Amino acid sequence: MSTDFHQEFNVLSEKVIGAGKMPEGFSLKENIQNPFLNPSFIASRLEYSMMKSIENLDEEYQKFEKKFVNSHNAVFWASDYNDVFSNLKYLFKAQKAKSVRLPNVNASTIFRELGIKYFLHEEKINLSEEGAIQFFPVDMLFSDNGSILLLNQSVNSYQFLSNSKTNVFFATINQIICNSDWAEIIQQIVSYRNNAGRQDMILFNGSSNCNNYLFIIDNQRTSILQHKELRPALTCLSCGRCNDVCPVYQTIGDEPYNNVFTGPIAHISLPYLETVETYKHLTYACTLCGRCEEVCPISLPIRDMIIWSRQKFVNDGSIDKNQRRMISVLKKNLLNRGKLNRSKFLRRHLFYKYMSSEISRSRRMPVLANDTFNKDYKIKTES
Ligand code: SF4
Ligand code: SF4
Questions:
Q1: Which of 307, 354, 346 is nearest to 328 (CA)?
Q2: By CB distance 3.0 to 4.6 Å, which of 91, 146, 193, 368 could disulfide with 68?
Q3: What is the pLDDT of residues 217-238, one digit of tens each?
Q4: Helix, strand, or coil here: 149?
Q5: Where in the chain is the domain with CATH 3.40.50.10420?
Q6: Of the bound ligands, which one is closest to the alpha carbon of residue 246?
């Protein structure tokens, strides 16, 4: 793609061309042959289309439902897993179902988020390849044609989909985009997650042989949506690239999150999806190095969102008095490098007296070096 094209695109994007529409003369389909030929263009267009859809969720869902809902397809809005489960119980009862076919249960975030395996176990519903009802995690909904994107499907999934008596799809409210031309690009981006290379993809908009129920689940995502500054987090495609480069995630691993969501985006979303009290510390567990943004295929402004959340928690008083006092003492002293270098006592006192009570609640205190970085550096370079 020539520089002229980039310039032209920049001008077009500044003028904010319509959601999902491509600049004149540009064929998305051609770029699909090699989407990473021009990654910054693809990233900015995709992020633009996704943000437009997030900003206009009501409208997008109205368009989607108009195309999707018919005598065989229905949409259920669920505020949380209780809504999902009560509707599923009703469905099982109405269909006298004893088993369910549930592909990708461990690979699917939505199934793990809902704890669907435990629910089925409690309801004494078996998992079986021959289950009369099939469950599918959704990868994206397209409002322009009312279709559902299903990725990482087995070869015979389409047959199963078209021939089963009942299909149940699970999407979250943020999984909608206005233009189905993005399907293959999304497929390529998401394929990184499962190390799967190019994944099998199904674009499904119903079949007259079966009944299709689609759950659109909130589960607290609207508490992120309320904050304009955090909305980009809802467009994350969960590809996992940022997890692989984040020094914090690479050091602590999955366990401390105690959640299905991990890595940079979880540092932003978990305080809102769960509780601020339980997860606010994640907002501060970031070095702001920006490595996540460098690899993000849709260039999400992760650091801006983290900084905004930090400010919000301080302004809201979510950071308690002791923590605020500790941070202001630390700030005062850390900004005085000379003082800090001179005083071993100050370093140790500050670190262990003020910080240990906070840090050691959830993790082990790191061991402080005996000498300052400057001194260590001088010794190393002189030797
Ligand atoms: S900016 Fe924060 S979240 Fe992103 S890679 Fe660096 S430490 Fe991780
Ligand atoms: S923030 Fe970007 S890199 Fe990280 S999972 Fe989401 S889309 Fe992928």
A1: 354
A2: 146
A3: 999 999 999 999 999 999 999 9
A4: strand
A5: 57-219
A6: 1
347: left (phi over 0), alpha (psi -120 to 50) or beta: alpha
Rounded-to-integer distance, Cα 227 and Cα 376, Å: 44
Contacts of 13 (CB under 8 A, 6+ apart): 44, 45, 48
Task: Calculate how far, in angstroms, residue 102's C-alpha sits from the geometric centre of ligand 1.
Answer: 35
Centre of ligand 1 to C-alpha 302, Å, is 8
Instruction: Read off the pLDDT band of 63 (50, 70, 90).
Output: very high
Given 3-state DSSP classes, what are the helix, strand and coil percentages for the chain, each rounded to the nearest 5? 55, 10, 35
For the segment 127-147, the average pLDDT, to the nearest whole number, is 89
CA dist., res. 322 & res. 354, Å (int): 9
Whether 12 has a pLDDT exceeding 50, the answer reads no
Q: Are 79 and 104 in contact (CB under 8 A)?
A: no
pLDDT at residue 364, as a whole number: 61
pLDDT tens track for 27-47: 555 554 454 556 677 777 888
* Distance from the alpha carbon of residue 291 to the mean position of ligand 2, in angstroms: 11
Question: Average of pLDDT values for 248-268?
Answer: 93
Name the residue among 178, 220, 229 with its Cα closest to residue 57.
178
State mean pLDDT over 329-352: 68
**d(CA 293, ligand 2 centre) in Å:** 8
Place of tokens 């793990």: 112
Measured at the CA of 140, the angle between CA 103 and CA 204, to 5 degrees, comes to 65
- Separation CA 24–CA 21 (nearest Å): 9
| Average pLDDT taken over every residue of the chain | 81
Beta-carbon count within 10 A of 311 CB? 12
Report the CATH number of the 57-219 domain: 3.40.50.10420
Task: Quote the DSSP letter at residue 115.
Answer: T
Instruction: Determine which residue's CA is closest to atom 3 belonging to ligand 1.
Output: 264
Which residues of the chain form CATH 1.10.1060? 231-359
- Determine the pLDDT at residue 380: 83
Supply the pLDDT for residue 233: 96
Q: Is 286 in the pocket of ligand 1 (CB under 6 A)?
A: yes
